[in-house]
Description:
With 197 residues, this protein is α/β, with parallel strands linked by helices. It contains six helices and five strands. Helix 2 (27-40) crosses helix 4 (56-75). The chain is globular and about 60 Å long.
Amino acid sequence: xxxxxxxxxxxxxxxxxxxxxxxxxxxxxxxxxxxxxxxxxxxxxxxxxxxxxxxxxxxxxxxxxxxxxxxxxxxxxxxxxxxxxxxxxxxxxxxxxxxxxxxxxxxxxxxxxxxxxxxxxxxxxxxxxxxxxxxxxxxxxxxxxxxxxxxxxxxxxxxxxxxxxxxxxxxxxxxxxxxxxxxxxxxxxxxxxxxxx
Length: 197
C-alpha cells in the first residue's frame, strides 16, 4: 500500500469511524498492526515482537477491525440502490436476455482459513476440516461487491448468515425491490428476492 493511501485510510477511519490514538499506540501503528496480521498472517506473538507491544496487539486488531467493518457498510453498496436499470452484461448477451433481466446480482459464501488458538477452534471447523470464517458476499454484474459480512464461524450455514443479514437493518443489506432477485446456490433459503441456480 502506498504511503498516501495508508495515511488517507487512517484519516478516514479517524474522522468518520472513531478510530482514536491509544495511550501507547497511534492510529498509524494500530493500522499497521491490523494490515500486517491480515496481509501476512502474522500471529499475535510475531506482531508483539515486531511492534514491541504486549497484550495490546489483539485488542488493537479488534478495534481496527470493528472500524473497518463499519466503513464497509458505507462503502460496499450498489451503484444503483433502487436497481432500476438492467445491467449491460444481461442486455447485450442473448444467453442471459430476457431470462435474467430482473436479476440484480449473486450472493455466495466463501471460507477463509484462519489461525486461532486450539481451544477456540471447534465452532470454526466446518466442512473444510480446518478453522475458517464463513464470509457472505453479494456482487453485481460489473463484479463489484455490493455487500459483505465477515466473521462468522466456519461451521455456520450460509442460509443462517443470509437470513441474519436480511433481518439486521444496521448492516444496510441491499434488499431487492419487488420483482427483482439475487442468484443464490442451494446453501441459501429459497425465499422472496432470491432464486437458486
